[in-house]
Amino acid sequence: MQKKNGILRHIYRFIPLVGIALTVAIFVYGFEQGLFQSTDKMRAFIGQFGVWGAIVFIVFQITQVVLPIMPLGVGSAFGIIIFGPLYGLIYSYVGIVIGSVINFKLTRKYGEPLVRNILSEKAYNRYMGWLDRNESRFDWLFGIAILMPVSPDDILCFLAGLTHMTFKKFILIILLCKPLSILIYSLGLSTILKWILGL
After folding, report:
1. CA–CA separation, 135 vs 126, rounded Å?
2. What is residue 41's predicted lDDT score, i.e. its pLDDT?
3. If you write DSSP's letter for every residue of 162-188 in order, what string do you get?
4. For the chain, what is the domain count?
5. What is the dihedral angle through the alpha carbons of 64, 69, 72, 78, rounded to the nearest 10 degrees?
6. Can you give the pTM of this predicted structure?
7. Residue 196 class from Cβ within 10 Å (0-12 exposed, 13-18 middle, 19+ buried)?
8. Is the Cβ–Cβ distance between 162 and 142 less than 8 Å?
9. Is there a contact between 42 and 35 (Cβ–Cβ < 8 Å)?
10. With b meaning 16 or more CB within 10 Å and e meaning fewer, what string describes 155-192?
11. At residue 33, does pLDDT exceed 90?
12. Contact 69, 19 (CB under 8 A)
């Protein structure tokens, strides 16, 4: 079991490196195909896939929460650039909510060993120490953190699964508090990306 847990930990830590490689590959392909010359070209490229373009993006956002390939805000920013502000935010919201629920449910099923395998020993001890000190007021702190665009939401959702928080309260907090943080970092990062790419 210990060997299996060690393999899982290495896989989870290797994923961001894969994400970086994929991100570089996507940018190289995009520049070669001229997709970054204008938002119209990017939208036309995605538009040729019809509804599957939106579905793939939502699945990507779900994956981003459960298995972080790249910073979550980057995916949301590209969602706005590609699908426009309204649909970009909606698709990001749907994907992030589903991913958050998966994290919560996974922890409820597999418990503390899952969180231990995901985090480094130092990070695990830091987060668990914080949880022990604040479990009685975790619900309030969780809600405030979800409102903030810079919080480690994926980790917080895993931690929530270790507390006595009910699923009803968890999903209510995610549904009500997540839109604001998605809006802030999506609009902010999309503006920065458009400036960098000259869109």
Report:
1. 14
2. 67
3. TSS--HHHHHHHHHHHHHHHHHHHHHH
4. 1
5. -100
6. 0.78
7. exposed
8. no
9. yes
10. bbbbbbbbbebeeeebeebbeebbbebbbebbbebbee
11. no
12. yes
